[in-house]
User: Which sequence fits this backbone?
C-alpha cells in the first residue's frame, strides 16, 4: 500500500511541479518579452514624435521660403532682396528650447547658421566623430526626398559627440537646402527611465510568483498524499484477492468483492465478468477439444485412404503413359503408311496422265486410220465397178474382134488405171499394216484393257498382208495381160483365148476388189470398235484419276487426323505428367498432413491436461 501511495504522491507532485515550472517559465518569458516590447515601443514612439516635430518645423520654414519666392515672382521684391529677407527671418526663427535652422546650397555653401562665422563658408568636408561627412548626408537626404539623416555632433560648449538626428528639404528655385535637428540622447534617457520602471515591476511580479509557487507546491504535496492513500487502499485489496486467486487451484468460481462504485469497483466487477466468460471459454474449449479429437481421427483415416488412392492413381498414370507411348508408335507407323500411300497415289496419277496421253495419241491415230480405211473403201468400191465394166467390155469384145486394136488400147488404158489402183492398194495395205502395228503396241501398253484391241489389230494386220499379197498377184496378172496384148498384135489367133483369160482374170480381180472392199469394211468396223474402246478407256482413265484424287484427298484428311491425334496424344501425355506431378505433391502434402495430425494429437493431449486444471 505504501508503494502505491508513494507512487501516486510522487506522480501528483511531479505533475504539479512540472505544470508550475511551465507556467512560471511562460510568465518569465512573457515578462521579458513585454519588457523588451515596451522599451522598443517607447523608443520608437518618442523617435517618431521627434521626427514628426522636426519635419513639421521644416515645413514651416519651407513655407517662409515659398512666401518670399512668391514676392520675387510677383515683382514685389528682387531675387536678392527676397533671399536676404528669407535668410534673416529664418536665422532668427526658433522652436522649443534649443531648436534652430540652417540653410546651405546644394554645394554645401552655408547661408544661415545662427549668424556665426560659418556663414559664407563651404561645409562639404565637415565630418563627425566616426568620419561620416555630415553635409553630404544632409544634402543627399534632401535631394533624394528621404529628408532624415543621423550623425554624431557635440553640443555647443561641449566636446563629447552625441547622437543627433536632422531633417532637410531642398528648395529647388534657389537651390537651397534648409534643415534642422536635435540631439536624441534625451530620448535614450527617457527610454532608460521607462525600462527601469518596467524591470522593477517585473521583479516584484517574480517575487510574488515564487511565493505563490511555493505555497501551491506545498498544498499539492498534501493533497497528493491524501489522494494517494485513498486510491491505493482499494487497489491493494484487489491485488490481495487476485494473488490468492492466482496462487490457488485456478478455481474460476471465485469472485472479487465490489467494495466501491468508482473505477476500482468497476475493475472488480469487470474482472468478475471476465472470470465468468473465461469459465465459459474453458467449457467451450473442452467441447471443442472433444470434437477436434473426433475430427482428427476421421482426418487420419481419410489421409490413409487418400494416400492409398494416390498410389493407385500413380500406378494407373504410369500404365496410361506406357499405353500412350505405344499409341505414339502406332501413330508413327500409320503416318509412314499414309506417306507411302500418298507417294503411290502420285505415281498412279503420273501413270494415268501418261496413259491418258497415250490413249489420246492412239485415238488420233485410229481416227486417221478409220478415215484412210473409209477412203480406201470408196476407191475400192469404185474400182470394183470399173472391173465389172471391163468384164462387160471383154464380153462385147468376143463378138466384135474387128475392133480389137481399139479394145487393146482401152485395155492398156484400163491396165494403167489398174496399176494405179494396185499402187493405191499397196499403199493402203502398207499404211494399214503400220497402223495395226501401232495399235498393237498401244494395246500392249494399255495392258488388260487393250487385250481385245490387240486381237482386232492383229486381224487388221492379217487383212493388210492379204490385201498386199492380192495386189501383188493382180500386178503379176496385169503384167501377163500386157504381154498377151503385145502378142495379140502378132497373133490374132490367140486373141480370143487371151481375151477369155483376161476376162477370167478381170473376174478374179473383181472378186479380189470385192474381198478388199469386204476386208476394208471390216477394218472400218474394227477401227470404230477401237475408237469405242479408246473412248471407254479414256472414261475409265478419267474415273481412275477422279478416284485417285478422292483417295489423295482422303489421304490428306487422314494425315491431318493423324496430326490431330498426335497433338492430342502429346497433350494427354503432358496432362498425365502433370497429374503424376500433382499426385506426387498431394502424396507429400498428405504425408505432411499426417505428421501435422500427429503433432495436433500431441498438442491436443497437452491442451486437455492444461484445461483440466481449471475448475468451472
Assistant:
Amino acid at each position: 500500500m505504501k508503494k502505491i501511495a508513494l507512487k501516486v504522491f510522487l506522480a501528483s507532485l511531479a505533475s504539479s511541479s512540472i505544470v508550475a515550472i511551465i507556467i512560471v517559465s511562460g510568465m518569465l518569458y512573457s515578462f521579458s518579452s513585454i519588457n523588451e516590447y515596451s522599451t522598443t515601443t517607447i523608443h520608437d514612439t518618442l523617435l517618431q514624435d521627434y521626427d514628426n516635430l522636426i519635419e513639421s518645423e521644416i515645413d514651416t520654414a519651407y513655407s517662409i521660403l515659398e512666401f518670399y519666392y512668391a514676392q520675387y515672382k510677383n515683382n514685389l521684391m528682387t531675387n536678392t532682396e527676397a533671399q536676404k529677407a528669407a535668410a534673416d527671418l529664418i536665422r532668427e526663427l526658433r522652436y522649443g528650447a534649443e531648436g534652430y535652422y540652417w540653410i546651405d546650397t546644394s554645394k554645401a555653401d552655408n547661408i544661415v547658421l545662427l549668424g556665426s562665422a560659418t556663414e559664407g563658408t563651404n561645409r562639404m568636408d565637415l565630418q563627425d566623430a566616426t568620419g561620416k561627412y555630415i553635409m553630404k548626408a544632409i544634402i543627399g537626404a534632401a535631394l533624394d526626398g528621404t529628408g532624415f539623416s543621423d550623425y554624431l555632433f557635440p553640443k555647443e560648449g561641449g566636446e563629447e559627440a552625441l547622437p543627433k538626428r536632422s531633417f532637410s528639404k531642398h528648395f529647388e528655385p534657389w537651390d537651397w537646402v534648409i534643415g534642422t535637428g536635435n540631439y536624441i540622447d534625451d530620448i535614450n534617457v527617457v527610454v532608460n527611465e521607462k525600462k527601469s520602471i518596467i524591470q522593477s515591476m517585473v521583479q516584484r511580479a517574480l517575487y510574488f510568483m515564487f511565493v505563490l509557487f511555493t505555497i501551491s507546491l506545498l498544498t499539492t504535496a498534501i493533497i497528493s498524499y491524501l489522494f494517494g492513500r485513498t486510491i491505493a487502499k482499494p487497489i491493494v485489496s484487489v491485488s490481495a484477492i487476485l494473488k490468492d486467486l492466482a496462487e490457488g487451484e485456478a478455481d474460476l468460481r471465485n469472485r472479487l468483492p465490489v467494495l466501491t462504485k468508482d473505477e476500482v469497483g468497476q475493475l472488480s466487477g469487470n474482472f468478475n465478468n471476465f472470470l465468468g466468460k473465461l469459465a465459459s471459454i474453458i467449457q467451450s474449449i473442452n467441447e471443442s477439444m472433444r470434437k477436434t479429437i473426433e475430427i482428427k481421427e476421421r482426418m487420419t483415416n481419410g489421409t490413409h485412404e487418400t494416400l492409398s488412392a494416390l498410389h493407385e492413381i500413380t500406378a494407373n498414370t504410369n500404365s496410361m503413359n506406357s499405353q500412350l507411348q505405344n499409341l505414339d508408335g502406332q501413330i508413327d507407323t500409320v503416318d509412314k503408311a499414309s506417306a507411302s500411300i500418298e507417294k503411290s497415289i502420285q505415281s498412279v496419277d503420273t501413270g494415268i496422265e501418261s496413259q491418258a496421253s497415250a490413249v489420246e495419241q492412239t485415238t488420233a491415230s485410229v481416227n486417221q486410220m478409220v478415215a484412210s480405211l473409209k477412203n480406201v473403201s470408196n476407191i475400192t468400191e469404185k474400182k470394183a465397178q470399173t472391173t465389172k465394166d471391163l468384164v462387160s467390155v471383154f464380153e462385147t469384145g468376143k463378138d466384135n474382134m474387128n475392133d480389137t486394136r481399139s479394145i487393146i488400147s482401152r485395155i492398156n488404158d484400163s491396165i494403167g488405171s489398174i496399176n494405179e489402183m494396185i499402187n493405191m492398194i499397196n499403199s493402203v495395205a502398207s499404211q494399214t499394216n503400220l497402223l495395226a502395228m501401232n495399235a498393237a503396241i498401244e494395246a500392249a501398253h494399255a495392258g488388260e484393257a487393250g487385250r481385245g484391241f490387240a486381237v482386232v489389230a492383229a486381224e487388221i494386220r492379217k487383212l493388210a498382208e492379204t490385201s498386199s499379197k492380192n495386189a501383188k498377184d493382180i500386178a503379176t496378172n496385169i503384167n501377163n495381160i500386157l504381154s498377151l496384148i503385145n502378142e495379140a498384135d502378132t497373133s490374132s489367133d490367140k486373141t480370143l483365148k487371151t481375151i477369155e483369160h483376161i476376162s477370167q482374170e478381170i473376174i478374179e480381180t473383181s472378186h479380189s476388189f470385192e474381198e478388199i472392199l469386204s476386208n476394208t469394211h471390216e477394218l472400218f468396223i474394227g477401227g470404230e470398235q477401237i475408237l469405242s474402246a479408246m473412248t471407254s478407256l479414256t472414261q475409265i482413265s478419267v474415273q481412275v484419276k477422279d478416284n485417285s484424287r478422292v483417295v489423295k484427298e482422303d489421304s490428306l484428311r487422314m494425315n491431318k487426323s493423324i496430326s490431330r491425334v498426335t497433338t492430342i496424344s502429346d497433350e494427354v501425355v503432358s496432362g498425365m505428367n502433370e497429374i503424376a506431378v500433382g499426385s506426387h505433391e498431394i502424396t507429400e502434402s498428405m504425408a505432411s498432413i499426417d505428421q501435422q495430425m500427429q503433432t495436433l494429437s500431441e498438442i491436443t493431449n497437452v491442451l486437455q491436461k492444461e484445461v483440466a486444471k481449471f475448475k468451472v
